[in-house]
Amino acid sequence: MKRKAMKKIILTGITVLVLTSCFKEIDTVPLKKTIESTFTVQNSMKTTQSFYYFYENIVEEVSTASPRSWDLAFESAGEGSKVLLGWATGSLAHKTGKYNIAEVSQDEVLDYINNSDEWTFDDPAYTNYLDSLSLQNWEDGEVYIQNRGIENDNYYLIQFVEKTDDSYTFNYAKATDNQNIQTYVIDRSDGLNYIYFSYDENATVTVEPRTIEWDIVFTPYLGWWETLTPGEFAPYTISGILINDEGGVRVAQIFDENIDFEDIDSTYIATSEFTDWKGAIGSNWKILGEVGSGNLYEMDPKKKYLLKKYDVLTGVYKYFKLRIIDYKLDGEDHHPTVEFKFLASE
Questions:
Q1: Which of these, 244, 220, 243, lies nearest to 305 by C-alpha position?
Q2: Strand, helix or coil at 295?
Q3: Among 345, 339, 326, 337, which residue's Cα sits nearest to residue 19?
Q4: Is 48 helix (H, G, I), strand (E, B) or coil?
Q5: How many Å separate Cα 168 from the centre of its chain?
Q6: Among 107, 163, 244, 305, which is most exposed with the fewest C-beta within 10 angstroms?
Q7: CB 222 within 8 A of CB 272
Q8: In Å, how far are 149, 167, 229, 289 from 234, measured between CA atoms?
Q9: pLDDT tens digits for 188-201?
């Protein structure tokens, strides 16, 4: 899938939303509590990758990582050999047609930066699908230019040299110093979905927990956002929820507005279609706020989900229902509050 890099869109909210409440004259009857359990993401989805794990009665944050802490991700525990750009910073790549890093001049790099519309990116919601990846043909040895998506020391040249069953070998250099070529070997690990590499550290870095230790991640990324024309999408810097599909997490979408969240029980498990699509939750649970509401985003009340996971401690599959009910913490956006309830195990 070929995609064109586009300028990021900045949307702003407008005024303050005034919430109204109704009070009874005689407040003697307790209100029905519909929220079983909730958790609020403490770190901004705009600046932090936060990994969470579902237990039956609680959801816990396992770890966090800075989006800028890594530049490349190498498939590790899986049978494939995907290599991903630093999607948490909106990293971009461009082919050069060259097979020697030292032959790619700074003038060529500048020309691509200023004149080419063929820069591509990895939308992590679609990393299940090989034809969506920027580096899908990385094994042919062609040199890529990588825009890291940061302010300084942004452009690097990368070339992949060799892949074995246990490792990847690649060369890289700063675009401003193409004669100083570094070589690095990435060793696979059975316990991790991906091994992450940082140019700044010239080393692998810890980003995600072990495969069995997390279920979903709240994260920023460059993805596809539906434009004002239905069915047409454009690149947009967003934040969303990705599932650990490599770890066996599956999600079913329940988007019927006639089905109340409170009414979803274990009977829906057998009749729902579960998917391993990493972006099954994604960012579509929030919609642009109404003009004058004061909210940049509002929660879409139609979006409810069933989450299925394999619990390695008990050897059974567990099912939960969930929805996102808020997007603020102390008045700040990008802190989702998730309502969830354990439904059944099998």
A1: 243
A2: coil
A3: 326
A4: coil
A5: 24
A6: 107
A7: no
A8: 18, 35, 10, 19
A9: 999 999 999 999 99
